[in-house]
Structure formats: C-alpha cells, structure tokens
Design brief:
The protein is an all-alpha fold. It is built from eleven helices and no strands.
C-alpha cells in the first residue's frame, strides 16, 4: 500500500512539473541576467567610461545583428564548432580506450601512467605552438589541441568508472558463463556510465577552451581569431558578442551531455 502511494505521488509530480520550487528555480537565472543587464546599462550611461572600453548592451546587440547580417559570426562560429566537436570526439575515444586498458591491466598502468601524468605537467599553451608547427595552422591542429585538453579528465574518469564496478557482480557474470563482451555490455558499461558521463561534462567544456587556445596561437578563422581581431581593432562590442557566443556554445554542449545522461541513466529511476 505504501509503495503504491509513493508511485502515485511520483506520477502526479511528473504531471504537475510547475511546483512552487521549480517555478522559483526557473526564474532565478532569467532574473539574474536581467539584473546584470540593467546594472551594465546603468554603468554605461552614468559613468564616464568610453564606449570602446565598456559598450552598452544596446551597442552589443546592434553589433551582434550586424555580424549576423554579414555572415562573419556564423562563419567563425561554425569553424570553432567543427574544431570543438572533432577534438571532443578524438579525446573521448582515445581516453575511453586507454582508460579501459589501464583499469583492466596493472602492467599497462605501470607502463603508461608515468608518461600520461608527465604530459599533464606541460601547459596546453606550450603544446599548441608545437602542434601548429607540425600539423599546420589549419583546423587539424586546433582539433588536436582540443583533444589533448579533453583527454586527461576523461581518462581519469574512465579509469575510476571501470574500477568502480563491483567485483562480486563480475564474478557472478563469470559464473553464469558470460562472455567478455556480455560482461562489458550488461555490467561494466551501465555501472560505469554515471562516472563516465561526469567526465564527459568536463570534457565538453574544456574542448571549447582547447579550440580557443589553438586559434589564439595561429588561425585565420574561428571565434578565437575573431576575438583577437576585434581586440586589436578596439571593437569591444564585437569582443562581447564573441564571448557571449562562446558561452552559449559551451552551455549548449553541456546541456546536450545532461540530456544524454538523463536518457542513458533512465534505468536508475525507481518505478
């Protein structure tokens, strides 16, 4: 009887998502953004700060519309997005494969871990010029820089995720004559997925930073290139537009991972 009441309450909660708490939470972010815009507008209107240092929100909006009309913002955003997605894919794939190997093999851990840890002592801004020299100033070098910065956090989360799988459950699967692939598909992958998706959230945000670092070093397109050019021309309104676009891109990637997490981990919800 108690279980039936709990299940009924959960169903009602899903049918009525706009509870007072959820309404307050949904209003906090828009209200905060509105307050910041008002304060920003007030600072631009009632101070003696020149517009090339602090443009008003209206000036930024006008510059945004102009960049949309001439196609420059869309072109540079697409270039950065290709680099981000390419670096994210390569970094995640390499980290997942190597992380699984290290988690399963003590020998591989002893051999590879010192080199992996040593590689992280070198800042990505120091590696970026080398990758650009070796692979050119095109998008390939930016993709590799993004992959490098994504690799380590996803690797660590993969190792932790695989090792968090209970050993007694693995023994149970073996006693049932499950194959190596069945153990991975039915036990290891579902058990490790929460930690792995946590690493993916970090990687999604870092991939944008990696692409931006590469574009700062050498590029002829991309949001990093646009940011450099705008800064050099004292087009501060365009600098704001570029920064806001980068924030929107990062939030979009993070939101996609959150939606993916909800879909893949739906099985954890109690009936």
């Amino acid at each position: 009887m108690a279980n039936w009441r709990i299940r009924s309450a959960r169903k009602i909660g899903k049918l009525i998502p706009n509870s007072p708490d959820s309404i307050v939470i949904n209003l906090i972010v828009p209200a905060t953004i509105l307050v910041l815009i008002v304060l920003w507008q007030a600072a631009a209107n009632y101070t003696n700060i020149p517009e090339f240092i602090l443009p008003s929100p209206g000036a930024v909006w006008t510059r945004f519309l102009r960049s949309l009309e001439d196609g420059s913002l869309a072109r540079h955003t697409w270039a950065t997005l290709v680099e981000v997605l390419g670096g994210l894919a390569i970094g995640i794939l390499a980290a997942a494969l190597l992380g699984y190997l290290i988690a399963k093999s003590k020998f591989a851990e002893k051999i590879l871990t010192p080199y992996i840890v040593a590689s992280q002592s070198i800042p990505v801004v120091a590696i970026a010029p080398l990758l650009i020299i070796w692979f050119g100033s095109g998008q390939i070098s930016k993709i590799l820089i993004s992959a490098v910065i994504v690799f380590f956090p996803v690797l660590i989360n993969t190792i932790m995720a695989v090792r968090s799988v209970p050993e007694d459950l693995q023994d149970l699967m073996r006693s049932l004559m499950a194959s190596r692939w069945q153990i991975f598909l039915k036990l290891e992958a579902p058990s490790a997925m929460p930690v792995l998706l946590g690493g993916l959230k970090i990687g999604a945000t870092l991939s944008v930073i990696g692409a931006l670092v590469g574009e700062f070093v050498a590029a002829d397109k991309g949001l990093g290139f646009l940011l450099n050019v705008s800064r050099g021309l004292y087009d501060t309104a365009m600098v704001f537009v570029t920064v806001i676009t980068l924030i929107a891109m990062t939030l979009s990637l993070y939101s996609i991972v959150v939606l993916l997490e909800r879909r893949l981990l739906a099985w954890r919800e109690k009936p």
